[in-house]
Amino acid sequence: MADNTIEILKKRLGDSGFKKLSVIDNPDLHAFVAKYLEHCNPARVFVSDDSPEDIKYIRESAIKNGEEAKLKIEGHTVHFDNYGDQGRDKKNTGILIPKGVEMGEHIETKDRDTALVDIMNVLKDSMKGKEAYVCFFALGPAGSEFSIPAVQITDSSYVAHSETILYRPGYQAFVKQGKKARFFKFVHSQGELDDRKTCKNLDKRRIFIDLQEDIVYSTNTQYGGNTIGLKKLAMRLAINRGSKEGWLTEHMLIMGIHGPNNRVTYVTGAFPSLCGKTSTAMLDGETIVGDDIAYLHKKDGEVRTVNVEKGMFGIIQGINSKDDPMQWKALNSPGEIICSNVLVTEDKGIHWIGKDGEVPVKGYNHSGEWTKGKKDKNDKEIKCSHPNARFTIALKQFDNLDPKADDPKGVVVGALVYGGRDSDTWVPVEESFDWAHGIITRGASLESETTAATLGKEGVREFNPMSNIDFLSIPIGKYIQINLDFAAGLKKNPLIYSVNYFLKDKDGDFLNEKTDKKVWYKWIDLRVNKEVNAINTPTGRIPKYDDLKKLFKQVLNKEYSKEEYTRQFTIRIPESLAKIERIKTIYETKIKDTPKVLFDILEKQKQRLLEAQNKYGDYIAPDKLFTNKKGLS
Ligand code: OXD
Ligand code: MN
After folding, report:
1. In this structure, which residue's CA is closest to atom 2 in ligand 1?
2. Cα(571)–Cα(609) distance, integer angstroms
3. How far apart are CA 538 and CA 429, in angstroms?
4. Cα-Cα end-to-end distance for the chain
5. Does ligand 1 lie within 6 Å of residue 292's CB atom?
6. What's residue 457's pLDDT?
7. Burial environment of residue 398 by CB neighbours within 10 A (0 to 12, 13 to 18, 19 or more)
8. Which atom, in ligand 1's list, is nearest to the CA of 273?
9. Which of the two ends of the chain, N or C, has the fewest CB atoms closer than 10 A to its terminal CB?
10. Is 224 marked as a binding-site residue?
């Protein structure tokens, strides 16, 4: 350790903290911690070595500091973010880039030199009078080649507490790896707090990602998506690192589908927010490995994946006893859970939009004291909870945790799934012809319709390739090329699917029940294991009626009629052609580095659709395509 680093650390950390940090033989780490503690100037510093006492200290500090309050159920606490700080702040989140580097118009960037001066100004003395926490985590399972060590400095006990639930401990990995650790670094300060312990200066929010130093800065915000460094902030660093090393960081769930004879087929799934990602990962009868972020590596000709996290920062809106039995059970049982931006009632119970039972008439929520019908200063009704209210919970609290969730080797990926909110184009489930076709026509063409809950106007299609657009730290064209190249050298490519849980009929009614998705995944398992044929369509391969009829009976004990099948799986030519045009235009006009193959694959799909339209008309029932064995793959 350099002399002045030792001096600063001794002064800032006290004996116990200094000892914990000195055990790690990594001068870069020491210099980083010293630099930001000196600059942010907290009154005290707590260094966690992941011992049960240290974790307990962090948890209790959150209550003592008033960032969390205890709820009626043992182990449950509530946290509030200031009004208007309940979501990812896209505008003030930026990748820092040196002059001359371009990321393209979909990626928010800031000039690196200017932003670093700015952030250092905002961070100066930002922790004054407060305690800072220095915590170590691993992004990925212990002892795994996939895993990346990470250090977080924060003055928020809520952030530190959340991370102990969501991420695996990392202190031992730092000790073991010493100088060799290639770690990510996070500095967060909530800045000044009001008397509700929420951020006072939201106008000074900054979330800056410095790819050059692998550091993310976050200030004047508390919402988890902006502050929990290891979540979406680390994702940007990891996408960038993976792009140089030949592996992928994806916004994907990982789940085990349980097929015949105790077989388990692992699939990953990418869905934009509020499109059924967590409910898919939590399908009953299947097992969960992760619900949000996956690292994918190639190993011995196979694709393997791990969950970067060990917990869930789940959306609580809509969780009810019928549709989400496992989450419902956890939310009603003792155990460690942080609920954020929900309604707290007088008896310290909680309520949220879509919970079973009557909405209480009053309580306390993200807007302060709340009564039914309360309006904000824009005359907008404030619901009992925020639509993006969350709960933070360790996956081990669920009965459906997959036994391989912590396997350092990861799990073998049988299929990748892409899904968005799409009322009129994609059929409920469809297989791509091959890897490149899947990456381009599913992943790179992913769109999702906005919901009333999240944005002003409902039903507007947003382009969101791989559901990763908000987290990219490399230009989109390059990202797509890396996805395409990923299949090189594989012995067996995972299959690629699209799913659509939101298809509607002409009257605007959903064509599927929420639970139907169980069947789509069982069919995917059968396909990956080559146990059923599928019908070739111009856009991919769809299930045969007889196979689905059997699965609906087996899985849901439901009689699935031919009429339902035909309505759901009709190929919609005008809508499919319109989608190709929309996607092509975006890549042609807005993305400078689009790989040429994207246009070739879309053009071929267009030609197949036009040919089919000529032959069969605008709407093609599956039966027309499946008249003999020739239509099968
Ligand atoms: C999340 C998100 O919080 O994608 O996972 O917004
Ligand atoms: Mn997410």
Report:
1. 273
2. 9
3. 14
4. 64
5. yes
6. 66
7. middle
8. 4
9. C
10. yes
Closest CA to 21 of 3, 9, 11: 9
What domains sit in the chain, N to C, each tagged with a CATH number? 3-68+85-245 (3.40.449.10), 248-310+405-625 (3.90.228.20), 313-397 (2.170.8.10)
Q: What is the DSSP string of 93-158?
A: EEEEE-TT----TTS-EEEHHHHHHHHHHHHTTTTTTSEEEEEEEEESSTT-TT-EEEEEEES-HH
pLDDT of res. 453: 47
434: CB partners within 8 A, 6+ apart: 493
- How big is the chain, counted in residues? 633
Cα gap 147→145, rounded to integer Å: 6
Tell me how many degrees the CA angle 240-242-244 measures, rounded to the nearest 5: 80
Q: Where are the alpha helices (DSSP H) in 311-399?
A: 325-331
pLDDT at 451: 65
List of residues 6+ apart from 15 with CB closer than 8 A: none
387 Cβ closer than 6 Å to some ligand 1 atom: no
pLDDT above 90 (res 332): yes
Strand partners for 297? 304
Q: Which of 413, 409, 394 is nearest to 141 (CA)?
A: 409
Residue 291's region, left for phi above 0, alpha for psi from -120 to 50, else beta, is alpha
385 annotated as ligand-binding: no
As a whole number, mean pLDDT of residues 401-420 equals 98
Q: What are phi and psi of 26, to 5 degrees?
A: -145, 100
Q: What is the mean pLDDT of the chain?
A: 95
Whether 275 sits among the annotated catalytic residues: the reply is yes
Evaluate if residue 454 carries a pLDDT over 60: no
Mean pLDDT across the stretch 99-121?
Answer: 96
The model's pTM is: 0.96
Strands (E), 316-400: 337-340, 343-344, 350-351, 362-365, 368-371, 390-394
Strand ranges inside 468-566, DSSP E: 495-499, 535-537, 540-542
Q: How far apart are CA 23 and CA 151, in angstroms?
A: 15
pLDDT of residue 471: 96
CA distances 323 to 283, 354, 461, Å, are 9, 11, 26
User: Would you state the structure tokens that stand for residue 218, as one six-digit string?
Assistant: 């976050």
> Which candidate in 40, 199, 275, 339 is catalytic?
275
